[in-house]
């Protein structure tokens, strides 16, 4: 590969060296696929998405290279740390107790990861501000600044290159458990619900149309993905891998990432777009535990990819940056759908009240708070100590009505670090590093709270419990006798509780139920009897019944 490195006047810098390494690794991977195009991009079912030791995910570009690095070196846990991170594990805890030292093993070599930073300079005053502060400015204020991207290279070690397993066995065990990837069902029966929902409900950036035919493609002119039906593929993984390839293509549309340029079939630009689609689909498939093989149509470009890589490592930089953007767009959309599906399933599951536990947020610590002590305990793997310290932040208040959930983890990136009978601690490394201390309550305790304080300040989860209570009370009453009102004109109006609309529905009886004529919001701050009394009063105040009442009085009295 001599001759393809682009050197500056002072010799290659850290970015040049990293790109050289990335290019060499990609050349090695593509050459192995060229010898056997049925080999997958990544070893089947091997690794989850790479993260740093704190749990923050690496971006698509770094993630791809770290996966190749793990595969090449045989690392089983895709967690990485800088030398400084390793040293921080040796800081004494709050109790001053020193644990065995964590260190990088002798002779181990680091691996580069790239991080884009931004320098923000005012156009007139030349004052510099932090990028985080720049993002908070209004659109007009942002126009007053020049923003310059800078690529920085950091060196990281895999946890297997340290003595973490011996020095922090509890933390090592946790990392092993987190990396256990559940086996997925192979064959044509394997289904991935978030993507199936995306197709069915048209939730992608363009329509995805499965058809019983032989080719998969993205139409630029129609902005539509056409793919064979899943049953036509040898396995579900093959179907989703092909679909991810076309979805990556679709992100290049002018209205999305604007990646497409005027190209002809077989041109270098067309070949590069095929590599973006291949790497993007491989990365997305890996994230969701699937194996991605090279698309057979893409095999024709293998030699062209190798030639470009050998000529200039900048090719891999620009390509991986496009892969990063495309893969992020896909995974964000899929993750959002997956989260909504999980929430829906959780709401439908029937759990006995005595077994149900709710998690109420009582402390939320974010970047503006001093969480250094918690960080140290987490980095050391001392979760018992972390739980003890977290409890000290609790002020003794009861249920936080607005922020009570049926699960301790409710956002993408949430990680339940530890819990006991009464408390749980959740960490999220994807939003600057936040800690949430949660107090646990049984459903009976939540119900008692609703009876005592109502739901005026409650969030959705507690309101759902209140609806369950109303439905149960109404069902118990209806088993004895269906509530009904006899109006002044002699009509009988029946009442039902509608959980979906959270209302008391009133109307005349019919074979299929009642014909709803009136609907009144249910007041969870009072019992069912009081709600029925309010409904009766409101019905008698309505114009139609007042008119009937006046007519009855005029003709000599009310009918009973």
UniProtKB/TrEMBL annotation:
Polyvalent protein metallopeptidase domain segment(s): 212-316
Coiled coil regions, renumbered to chain: 525-552
Keywords for the protein's UniProt record, in alphabetical order: Coiled coil
UniProt keyword Coiled coil present: yes
Transmembrane intervals: none
Chain ranges of the N-terminal domain: 21-157
InterPro entries registered for this protein in UniProt: ArdC_N (IPR013610), MPTase-PolyVal (IPR041459)
UniProt key word Coiled coil: yes
Full protein name: DUF1738 domain-containing protein
């Amino acid at each position: 590969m001599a001759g393809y490195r682009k050197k500056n006047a002072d010799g290659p810098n850290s970015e040049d060296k990293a790109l050289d390494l990335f290019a060499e690794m990609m050349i090695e991977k593509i050459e192995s696929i060229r010898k056997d195009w049925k080999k997958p991009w990544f070893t089947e079912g091997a690794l989850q998405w790479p993260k740093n030791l704190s749990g923050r995910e690496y971006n698509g570009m770094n993630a791809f290279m770290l996966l190749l690095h793990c595969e090449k070196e045989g690392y089983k846990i895709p967690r990485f740390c800088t030398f400084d991170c390793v040293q921080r594990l040796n800081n004494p805890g709050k109790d001053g107790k020193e644990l065995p030292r964590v260190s990088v093993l002798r002779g181990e070599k680091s691996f580069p990861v790239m991080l884009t930073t931004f320098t923000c300079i005012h156009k007139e005053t030349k004052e510099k501000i932090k990028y985080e502060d720049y993002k908070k400015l209004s659109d007009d204020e942002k126009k007053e600044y020049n923003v310059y991207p800078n690529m920085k290279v950091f060196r990281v070690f895999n946890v297997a290159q340290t003595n973490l397993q011996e020095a922090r066995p509890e933390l090592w065990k946790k990392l092993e458990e987190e990396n256990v990837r559940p086996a997925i069902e192979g064959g044509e029966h394997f289904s991935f619900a978030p993507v199936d929902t995306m197709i069915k409900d048209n939730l992608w950036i363009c329509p995805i149309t499965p058809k019983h035919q032989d080719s998969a493609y993205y139409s630029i002119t129609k902005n539509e993905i056409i793919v064979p039906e899943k049953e036509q593929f040898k396995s579900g993984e093959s179907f989703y891998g092909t679909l991810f390839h076309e979805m990556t293509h679709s992100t290049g549309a002018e209205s999305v990432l604007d990646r497409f340029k005027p190209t002809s079939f077989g041109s270098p630009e067309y070949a590069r777009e095929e590599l973006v689609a291949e790497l993007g689909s491989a990365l997305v498939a890996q994230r969701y535990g699937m194996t991605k093989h090279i698309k057979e149509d893409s095999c024709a470009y293998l030699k062209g990819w190798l030639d470009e890589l050998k000529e200039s490592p900048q090719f891999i930089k620009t390509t991986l940056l496009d892969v990063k953007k495309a893969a992020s767009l896909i995974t964000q959309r899929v993750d959002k759908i997956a989260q909504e599906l999980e929430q829906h399933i959780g709401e439908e599951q029937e759990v006995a009240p005595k077994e149900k536990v709710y998690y109420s947020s009582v402390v939320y610590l974010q970047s503006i708070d001093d969480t250094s002590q918690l960080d140290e305990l987490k980095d050391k793997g001392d979760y018992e100590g972390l739980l003890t310290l977290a409890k000290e932040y609790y002020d003794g208040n009861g249920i936080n009505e607005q922020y009570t959930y049926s699960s301790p983890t409710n956002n993408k990136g949430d990680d339940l670090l530890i819990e006991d009978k009464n408390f749980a601690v959740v960490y999220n490394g994807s939003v600057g590093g936040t800690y949430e201390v949660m107090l646990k309550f049984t459903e009976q305790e939540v119900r008692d709270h609703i009876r005592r304080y109502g739901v005026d300040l409650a969030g959705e989860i507690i309101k759902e419990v209140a609806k369950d209570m109303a439905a149960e009370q109404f069902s118990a009453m209806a088993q004895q006798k269906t509530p009904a009102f006899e109006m002044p004109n002699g009509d009988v109006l029946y009442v039902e509780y509608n959980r979906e609309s959270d209302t008391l529905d009133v109307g005349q009886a019919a074979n299929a139920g009642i014909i709803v004529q009136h609907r009144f919001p249910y007041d969870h701050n009072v019992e069912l009897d009081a709600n029925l009394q309010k409904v009766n009063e409101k019905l008698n105040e309505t114009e139609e019944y007042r008119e009937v009442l006046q007519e009855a009085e005029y003709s000599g009295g009310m009918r009973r």
